[in-house]
Inverse folding.
C-alpha cells in the first residue's frame, strides 16, 4: 500500500510541474539498463567501449552546470538567525513563492521520475528515507547508484514514516516542437538549491549536476541530516570511514574530515605501505554517527556509491578507485579516447595523442584547454570497489576509535597532532582548512581558507549551534569511550616547496601511531599545540625520509604558531556575536601554553 501522504504530494507536483508522464522507479537492474540505453539512443549519453569499460557511459553537461553552486544554495529556516552567518537565507514564504513560479509547468515535455530512496542500509536504525521527484533521467540513473532505491524502500514506508520530500527540476520545460538540448538547465540566476530544514524538504531547480541535483547527498545526508542530527543527538558529517586491520588482526575504524582536494577518497581507499596492514573502505564522503548502548560512537556510510572527482585519479594515486570504475560506471565531463575509453588530466603520465574533450571538441596535447573538466566525476557502485569492507553495510554501524581532521597546510602544522581531550579536538576541527593555492583565483594566496569540520557549505543551521552540538555530544558518554581526535597534515613542504612527507600508502604510518595511541601503547610528546609522536617510536622502517625532513614534520615553530593564532582569531569573527565560549577558551589556552 502506498502512503497517502506520498501519493498526495506526487499529485500536487504533477499539477504544479505538469510532466508528460510519471514513472515510478522500482530499483531494478533492467530499468537502469533500459534507461541508459534510451539515453544513448537519444544521444544524451555515449556508451563507452564495452571491451574496455563494460556497462559504462559518458555524459557531458552544459559548460554552465559543472559544479555545486554555493552562491545559489539556501537554508530557508523560519528564522534567519537559525541559518546563521555562513548560509544564504531567504524566508520560506518568499522562497516558496519564488520557486513555485519557476516550478509552474517546469516539467512540460518531460518525464517525472518518482525515486524512493534510503540513506543508509535498508531498515537500519541509523537510516532515513527520502523520495526524490525529478525530471532528469541522468539524476535518476545516478541516484540508483548512489542510494538504495525503489520498491524495497517503499515496502518500508507506512503512513507514519517520515521522509524527506526532495523535488528537483532541471528548469527547462519543452513546448511542442522544441528540441531538447544535450544538457538542459537554467541560467545561474535561476538556479536554486533550497533546504527547508523545519519542513524536512528540499527544492532544487535549474541544475542537473552532482550535489545540486542528487538530493540524497549533500542536501539531505549533510544539510537536512545535520539539522535532524542536532535535534536527535547524533552527527551527520562530511567524513570518510576507514577500516584498518593490524598485522596482529586487530580491527579498528577511523573517520576523517578533509576539505576538498586533500585526498579524502585516496585515504578512504588507501593501499597501506606497511607490511601486514590491511585497509578496507566503509565510506568516502559522508558518515552518520551515533552513540550506542555500549557508550561508543558508531558510524554508517549513508550512501551506496562513490561520486568521486576523476581528475588526478590514477593507478598510482588510487588503484582501488581505478579498479572500481572499470565497469558499471557513469562518467561525467571526462575526455573520450579514440578507442571509446575515458581519460582525464594526470590519469596517465602521458596524455593520448588525440581525444574528444569534455565539451565534445577535438583535443591534442598541444591544446591550451584541459581535456577533462577539473570537476569531472565518476559515479560507481561501492560494491565494485576491491577494498570495500565486507561489513560496509552493517546496519549496526562500525565503532569509531579515532577521528581525523586535516587540510592542505604547507607550513606550520605538524604531520600529526593528538588533541588533549575531546573539546580540544573540537577546537582543532573548527580551525581546519587549506592554504589557498594558485589553483584558486584569489588575492589571498598563502592565506588559510578555514573550513570547520569540512562542513562550511553543508551545515544546515547556525554554525555556532553546530560547534555547541559537537561539544554536547562529547558529554553523552564516558570520556574514555569517546574516539580520540587527531589533526593530520600530509602536505607540509620545505623551504624549496618540496613535500616533506610521501603521503598516499605511507600515511598508514601515521594511522599506526594513532591506533597505538588509542590503545595507549605508545608515549607521545606534549607540546603547546597537542601531543606529537615520540620520534623514537614512530615507525619509519623502510621509508626513505631524510632526518631533516623528519624533524620539520614534527616541529612546532612558535613564531609560525603566533601567526596561526592571529589567523584563527581573525577566522573566529565568522561566528559574530555568537562565538562559542569553548572556542574562545581553547584559543586562549593555546596562547597561554606558548607563554608558560
Ligand atoms: C563532494 C564535495 O562532491 O565535497 O563530495 O564537494
Ligand atoms: Mn564531499
Amino acid at each position: 500500500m502506498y502512503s497517502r501522504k506520498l501519493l498526495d504530494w506526487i499529485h500536487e507536483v504533477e499539477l504544479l510541474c505538469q510532466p508528460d508522464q510519471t514513472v515510478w522507479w522500482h530499483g531494478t537492474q533492467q530499468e537502469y539498463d533500459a534507461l541508459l540505453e534510451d539515453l544513448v539512443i537519444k544521444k544524451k549519453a555515449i556508451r563507452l567501449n564495452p571491451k574496455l569499460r563494460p556497462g559504462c557511459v559518458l555524459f557531458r553537461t552544459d559548460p554552465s552546470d559543472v559544479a555545486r553552486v554555493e552562491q545559489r544554495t539556501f537554508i530557508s529556516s523560519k528564522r534567519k538567525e537559525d541559518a546563521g552567518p555562513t548560509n544564504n537565507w531567504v524566508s520560506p514564504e518568499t522562497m516558496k513563492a519564488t520557486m513555485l513560479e519557476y516550478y509552474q509547468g517546469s516539467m512540460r515535455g518531460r518525464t517525472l521520475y518518482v525515486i524512493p530512496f534510503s540513506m543508509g542500509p535498508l531498515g537500519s536504525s541509523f537510516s532515513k528515507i527520502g523520495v526524490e521527484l525529478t525530471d532528469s533521467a541522468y539524476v535518476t540513473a545516478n541516484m540508483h547508484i548512489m542510494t538504495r532505491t525503489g520498491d524495497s524502500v517503499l515496502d518500508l514506508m507506512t503512513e507514519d514514516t517520515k521522509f524527506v520530500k526532495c523535488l528537483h527540476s532541471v528548469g527547462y520545460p519543452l513546448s511542442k516542437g522544441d528540441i531538447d538540448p544535450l544538457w538542459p538547465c537554467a541560467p545561474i540566476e535561476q538556479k536554486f538549491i533550497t533546504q527547508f530544514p523545519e519542513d524536512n524538504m528540499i527544492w532544487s531547480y535549474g541544475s542537473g549536476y552532482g550535489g545540486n541535483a542528487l538530493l540524497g547527498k549533500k542536501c539531505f545526508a549533510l544539510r537536512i541530516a545535520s539539522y535532524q542530527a542536532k535535534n536527535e543527538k547524533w552527527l551527520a558529517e562530511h567524513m570518510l570511514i576507514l577500516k584498518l586491520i593490524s598485522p596482529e588482526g586487530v580491527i579498528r575504524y577511523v573517520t576523517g574530515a578533509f576539505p576538498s582536494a586533500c585526498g579524502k577518497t585516496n585515504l578512504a581507499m588507501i593501499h597501506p605501505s606497511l607490511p601486514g596492514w590491511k585497509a578496507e573502505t566503509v565510506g568516502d564522503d559522508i558518515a552518520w554517527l551515533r552513540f550506542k548502548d555500549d557508550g561508543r560512537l558508531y558510524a554508517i556510510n549513508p550512501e551506496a556509491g562513490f561520486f568521486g572527482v576523476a581528475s588526478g585519479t590514477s593507478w598510482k594515486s588510487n588503484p582501488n578507485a581505478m579498479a572500481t570504475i572499470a565497469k558499471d560506471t557513469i562518467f561525467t565531463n571526462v575526455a573520450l579516447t579514440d578507442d571509446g575509453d575515458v581519460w582525464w588530466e594526470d590519469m596517465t603520465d602521458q596524455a593520448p595523442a588525440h581525444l574528444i574533450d569534455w565539451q565534445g571538441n577535438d583535443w591534442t596535447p598541444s591544446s591550451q584547454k584541459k581535456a577533462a573538466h577539473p570537476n569531472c566525476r565518476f559515479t560507481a557502485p561501492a560494491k565494485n570497489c576491491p577494498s570495500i569492507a565486507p561489513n560496509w553495510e552493517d546496519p549496526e554501524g562500525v565503532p569509531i576509535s579515532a577521528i581525523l581532521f586535516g587540510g592542505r597546510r604547507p607550513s606550520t602544522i605538524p604531520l600529526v597532532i593528538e588533541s588533549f581531550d575531546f573539546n580540544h579536538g573540537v577546537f582543532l576541527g573548527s580551525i581546519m582548512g587549506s592554504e589557498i593555492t594558485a589553483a584558486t583565483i584569489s588575492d589571498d594566496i598563502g592565506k588559510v581558507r578555514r573550513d570547520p569540520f569540512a562542513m562550511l557549505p553543508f551545515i544546515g543551521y547556525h554554525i555556532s549551534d553546530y560547534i555547541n552540538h559537537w561539544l554536547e555530544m562529547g558529554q553523552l558518554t564516558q570520556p574514555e569511550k569517546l574516539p580520540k581526535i587527531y589533526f593530520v597534515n600530509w602536505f607540509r613542504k620545505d623551504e624549496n616547496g618540496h613535500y616533506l612527507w610521501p603521503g598516499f600508502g605511507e600515511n598508514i604510518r601515521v594511522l599506526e601511531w594513532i591506533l597505538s595511541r588509542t590503545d595507549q601503547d605508545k608515549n607521545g610528546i606534549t607540546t603547546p599545540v597537542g601531543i606529537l609522536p615520540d620520534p623514537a617510536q614512530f615507525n619509519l622502517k623502510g621509508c626513505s625520509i631524510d632526518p631533516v625532513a623528519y624533524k620539520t614534520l614534527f616541529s612546532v615553530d612558535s613564531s609560525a604558531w603566533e601567526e596561526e593564532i592571529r589567523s584563527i582569531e581573525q577566522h573566529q569573527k565568522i561566528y559574530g556575536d555568537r562565538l562559542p565560549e569553548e572556542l574562545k577558551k581553547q584559543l586562549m589556552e593555546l596562547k597561554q601554553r606558548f607563554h608558560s
